[in-house]
Amino acid sequence: MLALRKIKELKGYRFFQNYKWDESGCKLFAQNNLIYGWNGSGKTTLCDFFKDLERGVVSYDDASCALLFEDLSTKQMKIITQNTLGSAPYAFKVFHQSYIQEN
Questions:
Q1: How far apart are alpha carbons 63 and 13 in whole angstroms?
Q2: Are 7 and 80 in contact (CB under 8 A)?
Q3: String of b and e for 7-36 (b: at least 16 CB within 10 Å)?
Q4: Does the structure show a pLDDT above 80 at 87?
Q5: pLDDT tens digit string along 5-24?
Q6: Is residue 8 within 8 Å of 67, Cβ to Cβ?
Q7: What distances in angstroms separate CA 58 from CA 46, 50, 64, one per listed residue?
Q8: Contacts from 37-44 at CB under 8 Å and sequence distance 24+?
């Protein structure tokens, strides 16, 4: 099983037109993470991106991403891109307002 440790870059995905992880100032994702911020800062967009990861596809044709995952059994790091999302053994479950409305 793979665990997401960081979003190295995210381009062309709504609010995140040219996002790159701040290698000097950002810690890696842990097992549980809290995402908060001002209205309009990209929280819902980030949740929608995680929903795309749950489905294994990026919903914007021109979007690209590079994600750093850790294999929990071997502790090796692996980079997954938008082209290989569907083949990676990871699991995401997104619970936010859209999920509530859909169900």
A1: 5
A2: no
A3: bbebbbbeebeebebeeeeeeeeeeeeeee
A4: no
A5: 999 999 999 989 999 999 88
A6: yes
A7: 12, 9, 8
A8: 41/15, 42/14, 42/15, 42/16, 44/96, 44/97
How does pLDDT run across 54-77, given as a tens digit for each residue? Answer: 888 888 889 999 999 999 899 999
Q: How many residues does this entry show for the chain?
A: 103
- Which tokens go with 72? 């929990």
How far apart (Å, rounded) are the C-alpha atoms in residues 70 and 46? 20
Dump pLDDT digits (tens) for 23-33: 888 889 888 88
37-46 confidence digits (pLDDT tens): 999 998 889 9
In whole angstroms, what is the distance from residue 90 CA to residue 23 CA? 23
